[in-house]
Amino acid sequence: MSMLEVRQLDVRHGLLQAVRAIDLAVESGETVAIVGANGAGKTTLMRALAGAHPATSGTVHFEGEDITRLAAHKRVARGIALVPEGRRLFAALSVEENLLLARSARRAGTWTVEAVLETFPNLAGRRHALAGTLSGGEQQAVAIGRALMTNPLLLLLDEVSLGLSPLAVDRVYAALANLAGGATMILVEQDLSRVLAIADRILCMLEGRIVLQGPTSSLTRAQVTDAYFGLAAGGPRTTQRAPA
Ligand code: ATP
Fold first, then answer.
1. How far away, in angstroms, is 125 Cα from ligand 1 center?
2. Does 83 map to a domain?
3. Would you call 100 exposed, middle or buried from its count of C-beta atoms within 10 A (0-12, 13-18, 19+)?
4. 154-208: per-residue pLDDT in tens?
5. Is the CB of 40 under 6 A from ligand 1?
């Protein structure tokens, strides 16, 4: 049994079908990266996995339990935490307050404010700073820290490097690489070099579908970029599964 099993998942925004017939299994300890052009459906898929957006059809099982209709806060209690695109911190609350807010729905576990501050050295001395006054990199560290405070089994990271300086991205990925040993992660990332460096497996989405997936070691950069732009042999609609 995989930690996460997604079968034939469809997700809509009104009439627009953003996620189409996704099948996905994630094993405990894996780091899976999702790449794809703007509008490919990556954020919608992540939000559907977190319970922030309802599935139209299909199923999501987590640790053997059918969570397809489970509310987001109950998924947090089961061990699924989303770091949303755009971070979504409470700007008028301090770093510590933002982190402590995550306690309400969390699983039992060992993450504390101190542990988060140790994991992200750029937050040292910023504990009482208001989140709205932080740099983008610091805010992203708080957003990831807030997810960690729920003691997740599965961490969903949506475009954590968006809008950050290269140095801030380096810091975020250094922290994630440290976590990767013990955590299971699905991350949406536009930067292919980061993806190739951190992911065990890559999924490429196009127009709501997975058009290419495989272990990072078996995919070339050219294969991934071709799938990204819909150039894979036969086009996206006939290339449901590509070279594994
Ligand atoms: P990006 O990299 O731009 O975030 P993405 O791959 O994450 O793109 P989504 O944000 O999931 O893609 O969008 C998938 C499709 O759903 C797009 O066509 C988008 O316009 C549409 N969409 C996303 N959010 C909404 C919404 N709240 N209401 C209506 N349509 C939406």
1. 37
2. yes
3. middle
4. 999 999 888 888 888 888 888 888 776 678 999 999 888 889 988 999 999 999 9
5. yes
